[in-house]
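Below is the data:
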Amino acid sequence: MARPPLLQLSDISLTFGGDPVFDDLSLVVQPGDRGALVGRNGSGKSTLLKVMAGLVEPDRGTRVVPPGLSVGYMEQDPDMAGFATLGDFAAAGLAPGEAWRVEAVAEGLKVRLDHAPGLASGGERRRAALARLMAEAPDLMLLDEPTNHLDIQAIRWLEHELSQTRAGFVLISHDRAFLSALTRATLWIDRGQVRRQDRGFAHFEEWRDKAWEEEDQQRHKMDRKIKAEARWAVEGISARRKRNMGRVRALQDLRAERAAMIRRQGTAAMALDDGPKSGKKVIEAEGLAKSYDGTPIVKAFDLTVQRGDRVAFVGPNGVGKTTLIKMLLGEIEPDAGTVKHGTNLSVAVFDQARAQLDPDMSLWDSLTGDPTMRVSGKADQVMVRGQPKHVVGYLKEFLFDEAQARAPVRALSGGEKARLLLARLMARESNLLVLDEPTNDLDIETLDLLQDILGDYAGTVLLVSHDRDFIDRVATTTVAMEGDGRATLFAGGWSDYQAQRGKDGAPAPAEKPRQKAGKPASAPPRKPDGLSFTEKHRLAELPAVLDRLEAEIAKLEELLSDPDLFTREPVKFKKATEALSERQDKLAAAEEEWLDLEEKAEHAD
């Protein structure tokens, strides 16, 4: 007997009083589903998880969870009021005598259960929320960015636990390796609708690019059809009124359908300017040593960073990665050893704690109030890589709309805060870029773009990250910090480090990712049925004919736009006028022919 779905949403619509977040959205989560929920920042992924969890009530539609089945949700910002410790919060949903479940999970996630919530960082609170969910073991787990603030060891522990569970789960994550290893289905939220593919995240980009290619072809086809029908309606309606008045009404329907199409959100217009070139040798560290309260961070550490190197620092949380980078930058004095800097260094830092952002300041003031971006005497402009830009225009390049410009930073999502910080970072010239957990909360498309930008960046990059895939794609050298002051250099990224490390229990080397996601080959054009061979051939060649005629008409119109051409070269003017009229007639005839053949082919399908 088939088991009922774990969760079903039907015809969900949600607006929050403005433009719709979702409209007539439906989805089903089956027992055993392991789904990746993907989509652009701001597309509504977190909101959809809250609707699935029953925490947000939609304007319209139904949510059905069969009796006896439980749904658990990992909160991004859990309310811990009334709990003395993180352990009390994590165990709150368990029956007496089951506290051992929390302890087992907390060990894998590295949660300090005796820590007071008021003294805990945002990352510790989120790990406690994850521990609570894992300990409760509901039938369906809804996980919103569970790998944020986890180190690689904890991510691998969580990956193993989820791979063994019999529960269903839907998760949001920017971590490609995590998603690829775990998921068997992909839920893609795009412009208020959810599409499902019963294949894991590893196949998502191929599916997405094919869907977008088909969408672009359909949009182009509709635009062409509207243009041809509009020409027919304007130029031939009187002569052909008896032939087909329904065609005029169909044109109105086409225009309404085209207007209802929502264009895809573009990617952020990110760019880096490496500015003046640094010296060939950027940083040279010899014999570095540092300890805090008797705990060694590094011992006898040597490192030479050359211009253009991409150095990744990996290791457990709290091992001292950020401290080591600050020593290399000269911000913290080592207990022993020396650090020498090359010439002409210009440093830019991306801070994982987002400490450079004042939560009470507006996005506008966050940019105009930055001394490195201020334009003297221009309150509405910022300096971007040496050129003044209007602050709203620059925010739009990073996918913020005008209404957000005066909103407080605290109203932004995690991904939006990361984009704002990138906007500040990328406005200035630099030749040494320090990225401390840059991938947290960014969507896959923005990560792809950031990776490509770093590939073209002529400067040097120091990177702290727990994202194995991102390290593999970016790093040329990996510094592995494994505790007790040990910091070892390995050539390449995370997978190379694992292969070279060769220790017991080390995972097998991951497949080396491609450097740039390629688009799948274009699908062959559909061969219309119901047409003769000659008609098929003609329909296939007509788009090129139309494009050529439009290009010729544009050139002739440009030529004839010269007001002195008639008096200066009357013969040339006459020939150009005749040629323009001839090509306009040919274009009208070709569009009419194309439209008739398309209609014939569609009616035969």
Summary: The longest helix spans residues 570-604.
